[in-house]
Amino acid sequence: MKRKNLAAGSAVRRAAATVGALLCALAVGALATTGTAEPGGAARDAAPAVDDARTVPVAATGTGLVCPTPAQLEQPDVGDDAFSAAPVATTTSLTAAVLDGADGEEPAVTTLDGEEEAELTGPLEQGADAAVLDGRLPGARVLRLTPGTATYAAGTVASVTTEGDLRGLVAGPCVEPAVEHWLVGGSTSVGSSGRLVLQNPGRTAATVTLQAWGASGPVVLGSQSLVVVPPGEQVVTMLEAVAPDQGRLALHVTAEGGRVGAYVQHHRIEGLVPAGADLVVSGAAPSATTAVSGVTSTGETVDDPHAPRLDVLTPGTRAGTARLAVLGPDGPVRLRGGEELPLEPGQVTTLPLGGLPAGSYTVVVDADVPVVAGAAVDRKGAAAEGDGMAAVIDDDPYDRAWLAGQAVAGQAGAGQTGTGTADGAVAVPEDVVYGVTLSGVPDERGPDEIEDATGSTEVTLRGVGPDGEVAWTHPVDVPAGQTVEVGWSELSELGDAVAVVAEQPADQPEVVWSVRLVQADDASLFSVLAPTPPLAADGDVRVRRVDAAG
């Protein structure tokens, strides 16, 4: 089914955003105690406290979702043309949708430095500049808007390559820039390549500090650990040059002076056979609990090198133990030898997930130390036919999807329910079929308690049509401890959609979810995306006047 990409209108006034941000900073800065301190001494006695605080409304400021660039090879033309690493062109599209009303001017798709791309006021035909990007263009795009109440905004960049080293469906979300990113996945071992892309959509330079961990512990980056990203630009670092021979990788990106976007474009080959390409995107920050949604099994054996795998890192200095809960279509699945995973500080620990029955799963990681997690899933394709490389290589290629860990909230103790963190949206590129994977996370996840999980959550799925309006609504009952798959055959009957929004009540067991994208004309090309949470809208700040000298 052909579906049109959605983007919208004129550029957001960044001057208004600056004023709003300044107002917010002044309001927050006004919060203070009623006492002052003498130099080198204790606080002076203060007058009796008077609650003169008042609430000041702060308007939402303009924001932007920065999008990945088209997938590309650093040196695509090295070697004989018959054995080229890039024998076919890469097709890249940007699909974006905004639902539930942005405030102020209409959203706009711009370049990274803020220059407006085009006046976009309705559905886009294939070929419009802001909807489809040429694979040779190095620049990123930014979806700029001012959030209103419950604004869902999502964008997805999808690059499709049918042959060569980049063979795969390389997809990633447009995300809000941040001062911190955790990226779990990728490698720099023989046959693998990782392009770390840092994007700065702001007006000031950002100084980025990189930390890396591998299977043996922290990776020394030396002078390469500091990267300056100029305003309105992006900087690419080849990970094999700064962290070579790492079979597993986890990265921590922190920025000063500005907020940045960060992701890794990873691809690998086995000999001359493509073995998968995808983006490693930012996941949940270190926490005692994290979940990875969208793990799919085709019934691989335990020792199959292409079986799904889980990567876990405790970035601190204390060893710990992680307990895993694998939620499947029929409820929790015991993972032989994997219920408890010992964790060494600073080491990326990998657990193969072979031996699972065919189906979709979510893996919930509970640890006694803060952890970050991600997963990798492979899918087998068919050997290429024709001349050149296909004439001498008949092994089957694979595609790989990297799955980011998601935060799990509201899990402090027995009997407590989730907080509605299923809320979010995923933009769906054109020319793909897609399915939604939802898992109910029970409060008690011990090996014995999880078997008796009760309750369910009714998640409401909404499809955003090409006109930006809700095209369909579909309730899904998600039992605690189980994974529910809403497949393409069911979703396609509901109607056309360029984005899917999921919402859950706050007083029911928590749900984590993801969207699996599959290329329409080649089911072996796929990717898995976690949802983008709703954007912050207007808010109130409590301020109090403080009289202080100096």
- Supply the helix-strand structural class: mainly beta
Number of domains: 1
Proportion of residues in β-strands? 35-45%
Q: How far do the termini sit from each other? A: 67 Å
The geometry reads as globular
Oligomeric organization of the protein chains: single chain
Helix content: under 10%
Outline the structure in words:
This protein is mainly beta and 550 residues long. The protein has one domain. 6% of the residues lie in helices and 45% in strands. It is built from 4 helices and 37 strands. β18 and β19 form a beta hairpin. It is globular and about 60 Å long.
Question: Helices, strands, pairings?
Answer:
Layout: E1 5-6, H1 14-29, E2 54-58, E3 63-66, E4 91-99, E5 103-111, E6 123-124, E7 132-134, E8 141-146, E9 152-161, E10 168-173, E11 180-184, E12 192-200, E13 206-214, E14 217-219, E15 226-229, E16 233-238, H2 239-242, E17 250-256, E18 261-270, E19 273-281, E20 287-297, E21 309-313, E22 320-328, E23 331-333, E24 340-343, E25 348-352, E26 359-380, H3 389-392, E27 398-404, E28 406-407, E29 424-427, E30 432-441, E31 456-464, E32 470-479, E33 483-486, H4 488-494, E34 499-503, E35 510-519, E36 526-529, E37 539-543
Antiparallel strand pairs: 1-6, 2-37, 3-8, 4-7, 4-9, 5-8, 9-10, 11-17, 12-16, 12-18, 13-14, 13-15, 13-17, 18-19, 20-26, 20-28, 21-25, 21-26, 22-23, 22-24, 22-26, 26-27, 29-34, 30-33, 30-35, 31-32, 31-34, 35-36
